[in-house]
Amino acid sequence: MSSLKKIEAIIRPFKLEDVKEALVEVGVRGLTISEVRGYGRQKGHTETYRGSEYRIEFIPKIKIEVVVEDSIVNKVVDAIIKSAKTGQVGDGKIFIYNVNEVIRIRTEESGKQAL
Question: What is residue 51's three-state secondary structure?
Fold first, then answer.
């Protein structure tokens, strides 16, 4: 069995559609997204609401999760970088994990057949 990797990418919300299209182009067949909030080098920002200024420390982001065969990890990472990058602080991060097993609940298929 070829090894599987889970790729998590934290990106700017307005880049979601671009990233999704780029992932489909490189062969990703499914993905999971979550709305998340994060704190990093961007360090939040200040907004004004009804005349009062307040600080937003946790910035809204999107977390994309995909599990792919090891053979396309580099293509997937490149696709995410090219489609999510603005060149500004706060573009996000990519994390890559080993996946020991995946099982499709409906059919009980496992490994890459379950993707």
Answer: coil
CA torsion sign, 102 to 108 to 110 to 113?
negative
How much of the chain is helix, strand and coil, in % rounded to 5? 30, 40, 35
pLDDT digits (tens, 9 = 90+) for 72-104: 999 999 999 999 999 998 899 999 999 999 999
pLDDT above 60 (res 114): yes
CA distance to 53, 82, 101, 113, per residue, from 12 (Å) = 23, 13, 30, 31
d(CA 83, CA 22): 7
Token output for 74: 């580099």
Cα four-point dihedral sign 22, 65, 57, 41: negative
pTM: 0.85
**Domains of the chain listed by start with CATH number:** 4-114 (3.30.70.120)
